[in-house]
UniProtKB/TrEMBL annotation:
PROSITE patterns hit by this protein: PDZ
Catalytic site positions: 129 (charge relay system), 159 (charge relay system), 233 (charge relay system)
Protein name: Probable periplasmic serine endoprotease DegP-like
EC main group: hydrolase
InterPro entries: PDZ, PDZ_sf, Pept_S1C_Do, Peptidase_S1_PA, Peptidase_S1C
E.C. number: 3.4.21.107
């Protein structure tokens, strides 16, 4: 007992000090929003009936042994007469396996998630991963009533799904707010219905915006410390006006429970996806027909762009909308349809969100000057395409070097070198036959077999052309030089190499 007294005394000291300073000090010592703003309860009461539980079932094939997987690999091998042999034989028999293993009949698995009603006609939004592969989907209301739902459409790229059910009573629906207006530190409310026992409410703040995990081409998450736990996936994130400003999708946690790092797809993205799924049952994203890359400080300096910004066009699809509009490799897109492009991800998202067939103005910087191109967007083929594995470049038997510069051994594209490095006939330029490991070229991952197509946005046909351009840039006091490089298949990228 006595050992607790000093500790208690230490905890009471601040309170005693506050009391000694008078009533004014006591009031100032208590934070104004220690438990959050008063409006949270009003928001929860207003919208909670619109938040539903999503219950799914799926038929799966049994995989073999009693522990899952092949019976021979999951059951231990026991010598005849072992004291444990009788125990495991009994275990197999009780699970219907006998000597042939367990019953291989298919069985159902059940999963739970959350969703929310956006239309009193029975339209529900949730995550795709909540209903992915489901044979049956049910919507369970806050009062426990249950309805069978049909799938309207899904978008795997943003992990969103739209469901529809036939209500037998009036519904509460919620509206989307403008996630672009969210501010860091703003209070938000996460509501889920993970166990079909009624809604659960947690509150927190917006701790970050525009989070990108490279999990998809359109990542742009809202980060919040409002607790998002298992079963809350697909539930809404509200602002204090009761508007949906996000769909809770991801958490980062070593335990599976909330540690204050949760992520929601912003409502601006959700609203556009939902509209298309309701209208078409699928996503119809805009397509520009270009390959893009980051504008690094070195590339910006080489292209005379200050400050570094935009999306660098590394390649143009011959059959894409950008080609007839006059967009070329080396152009830097800084504005698309009136919206500023700060980095490549901005261009990807904005193009995808733009209507197919719309004519838009695209502002590019070419050789230091702004130009405006008019493009009529095509439709992106959003099917998942297999990733091509690059062939390993064979070691050359000899190095027919004609020039050496920037840590690169360069040669003309002879038939022998084309064959050795499997370079397509359509690729023109100067081939790299060796890269010095202790140079900027190696740091930028240039490798033998790649072809330099342009130097400082001028085509080169032999090694002497490359060295001449490099020497001139050094003489002019330039800090770096921009190369357009192709791989053996002709895919292009820009690389800025230091001249110092």
């Amino acid at each position: 007992m006595t050992s607790a007294i000093p500790a208690l005394s230490r905890r009471l000291r601040p309170l005693v000090a506050a009391i000694c300073l008078g009533a004014v000090s006591v009031v100032m010592a208590e934070p104004a929003f220690a438990r959050g703003p008063e409006g949270i309860a009003d928001v929860a009461e207003k919208v909670i009936d619109a938040v539903v539980n999503i219950s799914t079932s799926q038929t799966v094939e049994a995989k073999g042994g009693p522990l899952g997987g092949d019976n021979k690999s999951t059951m231990p091998k026991l010598p005849p007469g072992s004291p444990f042999e009788e125990f495991f034989d009994d275990f197999k028999n009780r699970h219907g396996g006998g000597d042939k293993g367990p019953d291989m009949a298919p069985h159902k698995t059940v999963s739970l998630g959350s969703g929310f009603i956006i239309d009193t006609a029975g339209i529900v939004v949730t995550n795709n991963h909540v209903i992915d592969g489901a044979d049956e989907i049910n919507v369970i209301m806050n009062d426990g009533s249950k309805f069978k739902a049909d799938l309207v459409g899904v978008d795997k790229k943003t992990d969103l799904a739209v469901l529809k059910f036939a209500p037998s009573k009036p519904l509460t629906a919620v509206k989307f707010g403008d996630s672009d207006k969210l501010r860091l530190g703003e209070w938000v409310v996460a509501i889920g219905n993970p166990f079909s026992l009624g809604g659960t409410v947690t509150a927190g703040i917006v701790s970050a915006k525009n989070r990108d995990f490279a999990s998809g081409p359109y990542d742009n998450y809202i980060q919040t410390d409002a607790a998002i736990n298992r079963g809350n996936s697909g539930g809404p994130l509200f602002n204090l006006d009761g508007e949906v400003i996000g769909v809770n999708t991801l958490i980062i946690s070593p335990t599976g429970g909330s540690i204050g790092i949760g992520f929601a797809v912003p409502s601006k993205t959700v609203a556009g996806v939902v509209d298309q799924l309701r209208q078409f049952g699928e996503l119809r994203r805009g397509w520009l027909g270009v390959r893009i890359q980051q504008v690094t400080d070195e590339i910006a300096e080489s292209l005379n762009i200050k400050p570094a910004r935009g999306a660098l066009i590394a390649g143009v699809d011959d059959k894409g909308p950008a080609k007839p509009a006059g967009i070329e490799p080396g152009d830097v897109v800084v504005k698309f349809d009136g919206k500023d492009i700060k980095e490549p991800k901005d261009l990807s998202r904005i193009v995808a969100d733009t209507a197919v067939g719309k004519q838009v103005d695209v502002v590019v910087i070419r050789k230091g000057e702004e130009q405006t191109k008019q493009v009529t967007l095509g439709r992106l083929d959003d099917g998942d395409k297999p990733v091509q594995v690059a062939n390993k470049t064979p070691e050359p038997a000899e190095k027919p070097v004609t020039q050496k510069t920037l840590g690169l051994d360069l040669a003309g594209l002879s038939k022998d070198l084309r064959s050795r490095y499997k370079v397509k006939d359509s690729v023109k330029g100067v081939i790299i036959t060796n890269v010095d490991e202790n140079t900027d070229a190696a740091d930028k991952r240039l490798s033998p077999g790649e072809v330099i197509v342009e130097v400082a946005q001028e085509a080169v046909s032999n090694a002497a052309d490359v060295k001449k351009r490099v020497d001139q840039f050094k003489k002019d006091g330039k800090k770096s030089i921009l190369l357009l490089v192709a791989n053996s298949d002709g895919e292009l990228r820009f690389v800025a190499l230091s001249l110092q």
